[in-house]
Fold this sequence. Notes:
Blueprint lengths: L4 H10 L22 H16 L8 E5 L5 H8 L3 E5 L3 H11 L4 E3 L12 E7 L7 H11 E14 L14 E2 H10 L2 E8 L1 H33 L1 H21 L5 H7 E10 L1
Parallel strand pairs: 1-2, 1-4, 2-3, 4-5, 5-6
Antiparallel strand pairs: 5-8, 7-8
Amino acid sequence: MSVDHVLKLYSKTIQSSFLHYGFWDDPENIDLSTLSLQDIKNAQYRYIDHLASFIPSETKTILDVGCGIGGNTSFLLKKGYSLEALSPDSYQKSVIKEKFNRDVTFHHCKFENFKPETLFDLIFESESVCYIDIDKGFKKAREALKEGGYLLASDYFVFFKDHSNSLHFKSSHDMGTYLNSAKENGFELIKQYDQTENTMLTLDYANYFIERFINPTIDYGVYSTNKNFPKVSKVIGWLIAKKWQEKKNQLDLINSELFRKYRKYMIYLFQKN
């Protein structure tokens, strides 16, 4: 199966075993210019620490769906839970195998295609909900959970749409559709938490980093190429113009104001009826 090269780049860049937005307890009082790589790592750890607080006390066995490179899995193992992990990504498979050896059973497949050999107390979906077909995902969760088992989902959902063609609509599930499907498939929503404001600082920092470091570097590279190799520069510009515009448009996904307009980053705890 394929490799998610964006996640691979992200993990290599920040040198963290976590692949999520992070969680900031006091975001309005943080100066972006003072943030360090360690601050980003601390926010990553705080995310799983906060999310794990929603796990019911009677939980013993967990299926980590969309396990990334094992940061959440490792955290939950240290808390004493019995874990199995799942991901369709080949790079993540290799990392999990190296990190946990045989201590964690790894399922290399999409969740919709998962064939459970045992039933779990809780299914854990951290920023993986958006990759799973809504109805098929809830049906598979019912199949893989014990009676009265739980589904803990943490992800961003679209709650508002207008007539724009925003990329925000394409990278998330519709909130209403998701919650309705949960009810139709026999899941009761017992807890929810809106953590949008606790995650937006990560997007703001990404924009800050791009504006301060990436864009000036690109501008200088373009200037230097135009000056020293004008013909080559013209050809390159012609060849990559469309792709470059597409990449620039994707920066809308890390625009926190647009995120707030269209999406909410929610934690949902469901129980199987």
